[in-house]
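pls design
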C-alpha cells in the first residue's frame, strides 16, 4: 500500500524559508516522478515543482522558479521542497503526489497523471 506523508509546514514571515518533506512508503521515490502541488482556499490545485525519477532533472512553475528547490534522498525515500523568499501568495496547502507510471516525467503538470497523494500540509506566509 502506497502512502505519502508531508511534514514541515507552518507559518513564516514573508521573505522567510520553510522546508517540506514528503516521506513515501510502498514504492521507491527514485523510480517515479514526485511532484508538489498546492491549493489555496477557493482556488484550483496548481503545480509547483516536480522531482523526476532522473535525479538531476526537476521542473518548476514560473511562480516559484529561483525560490523553490526540490530534491530527493533515496536512502530515506523522501522528497523535499525547499522554499525560500516566501511570499504571501505562496500560502496554501501543499501536497506531494507520485506519478502513476514508472520512469515517466511527461505531463508532469497534469494532476490526473498522479496516482497517489499525501494529505497535505499547510503553509502560511504573513507580512
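designed seq:
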Amino acid at each position: 500500500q502506497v502512502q505519502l506523508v508531508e511534514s514541515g509546514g507552518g507559518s513564516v514571515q514573508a521573505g522567510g524559508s520553510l522546508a517540506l518533506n514528503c516521506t513515501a512508503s510502498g514504492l521507491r521515490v527514485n523510480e517515479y516522478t514526485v511532484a508538489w502541488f498546492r491549493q489555496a482556499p477557493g482556488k484550483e490545485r496548481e503545480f509547483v515543482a516536480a522531482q523526476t525519477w532522473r535525479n538531476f532533472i526537476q521542473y518548476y512553475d514560473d511562480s516559484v522558479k529561483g525560490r523553490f528547490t526540490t530534491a530527493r534522498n533515496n536512502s530515506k525515500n523522501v522528497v523535499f521542497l525547499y522554499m525560500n523568499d516566501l511570499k504571501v501568495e505562496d500560502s496554501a496547502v501543499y501536497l506531494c503526489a507520485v506519478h502513476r507510471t514508472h520512469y515517466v516525467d511527461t505531463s508532469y503538470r497534469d494532476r490526473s497523471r498522479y496516482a497517489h497523494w499525501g494529505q497535505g500540509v499547510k503553509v502560511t506566509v504573513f507580512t
